[in-house]
Design brief:
alpha/beta, 7-stranded parallel sheet, 15 helices
Length: 365
Amino acid sequence: MLQIIPSLDRAGAEKQMSLLARGLPPEEFEVYVCALSRGGPLEAELRQAGIPVHVIGKRWRADPQAYRRLRRLIAELRPQVVHTWLFAANAYGRWAAFCCGVPVVVAAERCEDPWKGMLERLIDLYLARKTARIVVNSQAVRDFYLRYGVPAEKLVVIPNGVGPVLPSSTGRQELLAELGLPENCYLVGLIGRLWPQKRIKDAIWAADLLKVIRDDVHLLIIGDGPQRHRLQRFRDQCHIRDKVHLLGHRDDVPRILPHLDVLWCTSAYEGQSNAVMEAMAAGVPVVATDIPANRELLEHGVTGFLFPVGDRASLARYTHKLLGDRQLARCLAQAAQAHILRNFSVETMIQRYRQLYLTLLGILG
């Protein structure tokens, strides 16, 4: 089996692919991983698990040399299954697999993708005809691609998997001292790529609103991306540098996550947010945008709070309510944790993929 993905960064799809590749039974699956453009932090984890990793080195949007290298790799490995993830790998990987005569080709779509233009849609629909199945991680993504024109029989929903969150290796006071924050402050976190989809400016604006009514809330923005300098400038124009901290890319999110008092998701659209799921699994209360994918994870007022996209006042109001009523915060967090661990385990996710692969290979009826 060959898993093909654009990179091995610590992002949502990459994390799920790594969990899957490392979790498939080795007595049934010999797994290889191919990063189409570049490697990343997950490469070491895969290699430590004994999984060979190949980096193709795609440099441009249209890169014929990278395509030839990828096709050569597939011809050498002769996999029975090729599973591609995200648009670039779906386009390059599926076509190369078809040309090499791979028996089973599976694609993964991980998010609603309103950015796709006519060319990307035509490529997706053309390749879908020969793709055995297209795996999506939520009903929201399935509905998006049904509207897009992908046949319903091609689409399979396999939700993301989240494992139990281990206690942090760092004490709260130690973390606060490390970040240069006061001992009695509250920590609000936002984890994700600094990208327009995430609407992180809304989070900075909400933090500014919170500062008006309380002086003990600090927003930690964890992640990096093309909007970093623009967001820094907006933060500074709001005169809220003392309350909003852009921590950049971090490899130690599991160490920080359990110490958050609230996690925010301000995204305009998602597939199925790993950050939200991991916070729920860690027992951290979540306030997230009221979008289809988040509604599949959170029940408003029961396992978290949902607010309309762009409604910064509601985001600030729900956060103030959670910080002021710690019993309510605990009740929501405990209900969310039980929901995630019961319905979205890594083991369940891996078993669903295993059954899909074996069924498509004709091994399971």
